[in-house]
Each structure stands twice: as structure tokens, then as C-alpha cells.
Design a protein that fits this description.
mainly alpha; 2 helices
Length: 96
């Protein structure tokens, strides 16, 4: 089993808990705040998610550009391993 698969298996219960809590929060907002508040919160949540994804792509681009700018005289260690800097849920979209 690869490291990525091991991490995904280990994180599965946490992801389930987070999704469950998010669903409960959404129902509570809808029940107590109404459709207008819920729709506003959803737009804000999706905007924040897009902003975070853009920032991750920008950070990855910057890291790759910096690595490419290294001269041959500079040591290549530590190795360029940026996978741990990015959330796994958006990693595939960055590499596409």
C-alpha cells in the first residue's frame, strides 16, 4: 500500500466526522437562520474554498519555479517534496 493510500485510509474516519459535523451545521443554519442565511453561508464557503485552491496552486508554482531556478552548483537537498504541503483533496486538481 502506497503512502498516499495509507494516509487516505488513516484520514477516512476524520473526513467522515468533518462531513457529518458540516452537514449538521448546515441543517442548523437552515433551521435557525433560514434559506437566505444558508445561501449566503454557502456562497462564502465556496468562495473561501476557491481562494484556498488558488493560493495552493500559486504556492506550488512558486516552489517549482524556485527549484527550477537553482543553479547546478547548489545542492539539491532537501529534495523537492511538496506533496505534504497540500491537502490531498485538491492535490489531483493541481497536478492536472
Amino acid at each position: 500500500m502506497s503512502e498516499l493510500e495509507q494516509r487516505a485510509k488513516k484520514d477516512a474516519p476524520l473526513r467522515y466526522d468533518i462531513r457529518t459535523l458540516g452537514d449538521a451545521l448546515g441543517r442548523a443554519i437552515l433551521q435557525h437562520g433560514g434559506t437566505r442565511v444558508f445561501d449566503t453561508e454557502e456562497r462564502l464557503r465556496l468562495s473561501c474554498k476557491r481562494l484556498r485552491e488558488c493560493a495552493e496552486r500559486l504556492a506550488l508554482s512558486s516552489i517549482i519555479a524556485s527549484a527550477g531556478a537553482m543553479s547546478m552548483k547548489q545542492p539539491k537537498t532537501p529534495s523537492l517534496n511538496v506533496a505534504h504541503l497540500l491537502p490531498w483533496s485538491s492535490f489531483s486538481s493541481i497536478m492536472a
